[in-house]
Write a structure and sequence with these properties.
Helix content is about 30%, strand content about 20%. The protein contains six helices and nine strands; from the N terminus they run H-H-E-E-E-H-E-H-E-H-E-E-E-E-H. The chain has a seven-stranded mixed sheet with strand order 2-1-5-4-3-8-9. Strands 6-7 form a two-stranded antiparallel ribbon. A hairpin with a 4-residue loop joins strand 1 and strand 2. It binds nickel (II) ion.
């Protein structure tokens, strides 16, 4: 299933996350890069976060509870943006994150994966629950009002192109993954198309 979905994802790149070089970077074929392992990642405790990126938000999680960024302080936060109608690229990314989380063992407790919608009009908490629940129980889905989502998109410099017609699956968005530190500050950028091994190694690097 995994491989078939990855191939399907390739054929649908033009429909989702279609941002030229970013869409290319989304290419799962990039998985041919040298494998890294969680065990080999050098720990970098206490690395200072980079100010001025990310920041406060007040959104609603997939269980309907109001959440702010402060709720996630004390752990690393892996932030990604997408939308539940994304035909395949967002699901492929989330499958990769789920695989990375499963490979972390006990270290998984050090990180909260957060999936923030770029399409709050369609993505109700109920839709978000059904979507993130397909991938990993640790993933928190966040949605909110149009203004709140626009604010968090601006703070993370996400590029979004909402679908003009009736087909919400044609919404495009950049899909970097942002690793935030225990104080909520930005510490590391993970490229679209990173392998589960690369994602896990990056988390492990800052989790100790
Ligand atoms: Ni997508």
């Amino acid at each position: 299933m995994s491989r078939r979905r990855l191939r399907l994802g390739l054929t649908l790149l033009a429909a989702c996350c279609a941002f030229g070089d970013i869409a290319e970077a989304h290419d799962p074929l990039a998985k041919t890069s040298a494998p890294s392992t969680v065990a080999a990642a050098p720990a970098q405790p206490g690395v200072p976060s980079i100010p001025g990126f990310g920041g406060p938000f007040r959104l609603t999680d997939h269980t309907g509870v109001s959440r702010t960024e402060a709720d996630f302080h004390g752990k690393l936060m892996l932030v990604i943006f997408g939308f539940t109608n994304c035909p395949d690229v967002c699901p492929v990314e989330l499958m990769g994150i789920a695989e990375a989380l499963d490979s972390l063992g006990a270290m998984v407790a050090a990180v909260t994966p957060v999936f923030i919608t770029v399409d709050p009009h369609h993505d109700t908490p109920e839709r978000m629950a059904a979507f993130v629940g397909q991938f990993h129980p640790a993933i928190i889905g966040l949605t909110g009002g149009t203004r709140e989502i626009a604010d968090v998109i601006r703070k993370y410099r996400v590029h979004v192109m909402l679908a003009a017609g009736d087909d919400p699956s044609r919404t495009g968005h950049s899909s970097f993954m942002y690793l935030m530190g225990r104080d909520g500050g930005f510490i590391s950028l993970i490229m679209p198309g990173a392998t589960p091994e690369e994602i896990a190694a990056r988390i492990a690097k800052y989790a100790q």
